[in-house]
Amino acid sequence: MRGNRYRLKSSSVYVVFLLCFAGLYARLFILQVVHHEELSARGEKLHRFNVKIDPRRGNIYDRENRPLAMSVRVKSAYAVPENIESPGEAADLIAGSLKIPRDEVMAKLGKKGRRFVWLGRKLDGRIADRLESLQIEGVGFREEVRRVYPQGALLSHVLGFVDIDNRGIEGLEFQADGSLRGQAGWMASHRDRKGREIMTLRSREVQPIDGCDLGLTVDVVIQHIAESELENGCRKYNAAGGCIIVMNPQSGAVLAMSSWPTYDPNSPSDYPQEARRNRCITDVFEPGSTFKVVTIACALDRGAVSIDDCFFCENGAFRVGRHTLHDVHKYGTLTTADIIRKSSNIGAVKVAMKLGERSLHGGIRRFGFGEPTGVGLPGEVAGILHPLAKWSGLSIAAVPMGQEIGVTPIQMASAVATIANGGLAMKPYIVETIRDSSGRVIKSFAPEVRARVVSEAAASALVKAMEGVPTREGTAPKAALEDYTVAGKTGTSQKVDPDGNYSHSRFVGSFVGFAPAENPSVLILVLLDEPKPVYYGGAVAGPIFKEVAGRVLKYLGVPPDRESGGVKVVSVPGQARPDAAVTAD
Amino acid sequence: MRRKNKRLNEGFSTAVLTGRWMLLAVIGVSVSLLYVWQHVQLVRTGYAIKSMEREIEKWQKANEALRLVNERLKNPQRVERALAQNKLGLVFPQAKDIVRLRYPRHSKAHEKEKSGSEGGTDTLLSYMSGGGSVAGRRRL
Lengths: 585, 140
Known about the structure:
Largest sheet of chain B: 2 strands, parallel
Distance between the termini of chain A: 119 Å
Structural class of chain B: alpha+beta
Strand content of chain A: 15-25%
Radius of gyration of chain B: 44 Å
Number of helices of chain B: 3
Radius of gyration of chain A: 35 Å
Number of helices of chain A: 19
Structural class of chain A: alpha+beta
Shape of chain A: elongated
Largest sheet of chain A: 7 strands, mixed
Oligomer: heterodimer
């Protein structure tokens, strides 16, 4: 009897356990088999995540490896409005931290149905830390890469800038975007309930490829000298704008390129579009008298004239067709060299007439006018050089003195660099190397000879003539340096009024020169747009050239090639120069 | 007796079988525990690696920020205007403040290098160290 009861009890327990396990297995079957697809998809969605890994955008360096553009990792703040319980309080805290109007924050937090809104992108470290320390529910942070320009406005027109997503918009950032950007990577993994990644469940990972670094020919110190002197000059002469180019005429390497007004690429939207224009490559202007060096170089090269040939300059008034050409001063007979030195319009036209239209046009083309120089910056224009067939009867009286032709500052600088370099035209360039993220050079740009434009003899004779310009007898005595010989040419051109006539109040003053004249280390072009009240190139651009050239030559350690009145010279007999060990080959 | 022996033998076999099963179960459980322990260790190590990665990233970010500050401080505009001219009162030397030292040529290498300088001598620009201050300011 007792045995039967015991068996009944144990059987009941057994059945209960069996039913429980059966229920559990049934549930397990439903979860694992029947709803397998749905539940595993839900689990995957909750725990699995894909992350895009941003590459580092390549840096830009000057020729001494000083960074001009860098990428730094910063935080961006976002909000999930539906997770914020008290939007009003949160808005007060967020607005206080980010220094933005409370209404703006409220508008973002009040957006219905939005699960994600940016509060601030690429914040400064201190601001992000301050906001993060408040630990506001529903506010999160994401790491992003911000482009920064540690030198501020320096070289801004060449560097350009990027948009919020680090895509190049202007300048080299735009031109070399493909090299600088790199390739994004990605990773697929799982996270735990605390949001931490479970590394053992990382299924796939593709490493990003960082962008390449650019090494420029520009020197930060020379750029600074050029920019500060240009700004001083523009302010002093009330110019609407200006630009300056410093080149090595023997290689074509651009050492500095600046436009004024300028802007800070760290906050480009704070400046008008006018300030963001790289005038050196985009502005077309009538060069005026600086173009006489091109005319005379062509004539000397073709043997149409020699440097000592004499021309009667009609005492300041020369009738060509229905028009009368004038010189600033009345000149009688001038040699070809004097035409350069005195900048005689009539003399230049008479030289061109001896050369002939066809030869002049061909020579101008050989100098590279009418086509972009290919300096490697975006937005470079070709200038205006009308085809010979479209030249009027008066063109031969206008083009030789820099009218009826439009050039860019970089074209004019390259043309004079050709003369400084003995008639050999070098292609101007600003990017010297492209290096991968490990520093290995993957592409380098060496000096490139574009063409022999004029003979060495013609160039040499012209350089001698140009040495007369920065003298008391020339048009730019203020461009002369005390301890270096300078060769150069002034230019003053009238701007065209909206009615199509030459203006009598708006001028462009320019000076382009190089030093030391015989063996030039630097070529500098200075251009001021609408200087007032003084506007002659020799008077406004000449002094800027002098300041820049003097400082740059000393910075480069170029030995002086002439005695200066003010500088004392002390002989040190029997002693070696202290830095001889450094300079010996 | 024979029946008793048979029963004893059967009991012994059952015990051995049970023992074997239990040993197998223990081994199975141990292996399972080892697997779980190993998995837990892997996950923990993963967390530790992740934490170290975050630490490295933190220091890299700090390094980037300091490098940026360093570059900003070296900005030539700041060095020249804010520090040299405004703070230290330095000015550019005038011609009268400059002494050019003329050294005799001493080597072929030097001759080649200095072929541009006149008079068969080396020159080295040197700024005067004393006297003739410019409006009470030091020279840059």
